[in-house]
């Protein structure tokens, strides 16, 4: 893959559980949208998903809101 200086790096942390097909569809939609709307080369869209278990989130107060009791 040859990228230019205009490469866009997108990293998203999310709950685990999406299928490979959903991820492929997401990548294609993000790259296509950035290309259509902003003229970004699709080769310059680098996407990284970081999947974590739900119990790895705390939304405040020191609680693990998604963790099983």
Can you give a write-up of this model?
With 69 residues, this protein is an alpha+beta fold. The chain has a domain of 47 residues: Macrophage Migration Inhibitory Factor (2-Layer Sandwich). It is built from 1 helix and 2 strands. The chain has a two-stranded parallel ribbon. The protein starts with 7 loop residues before the first strand and ends in a 17-residue tail after the last strand.
Topology (SSEs and partners):
Blueprint lengths: L7 E8 L4 H19 L6 E8 L17
Spell out the key features of this protein:
69 residues; alpha+beta; Macrophage Migration Inhibitory Factor; two-stranded parallel sheet; 1 helix; 2 strands; 28% helix
Quick summary of this structure?
The chain is α+β, with helices and mostly antiparallel strands and 69 residues long. The chain has one helix at residues 20-38, and strands spanning 8-15, 45-52.
CATH class categorisation of the domain at 8-54: Alpha Beta
What value does the Rg take, in angstroms?
16 Å
Count of individual beta strands: 2
- Write down the overall mean pLDDT: 94
């Amino acid at each position: 893959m040859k990228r230019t200086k205009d490469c866009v790096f997108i990293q998203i942390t999310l709950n685990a559980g999406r299928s490979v097909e959903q991820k492929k569809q997401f990548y294609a939609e993000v790259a296509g949208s950035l290309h259509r709307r902003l003229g970004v080369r699709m080769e310059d869209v680098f996407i990284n998903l970081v999947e974590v278990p739900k119990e790895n989130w705390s939304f405040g107060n020191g609680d693990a809101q998604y963790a099983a009791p």
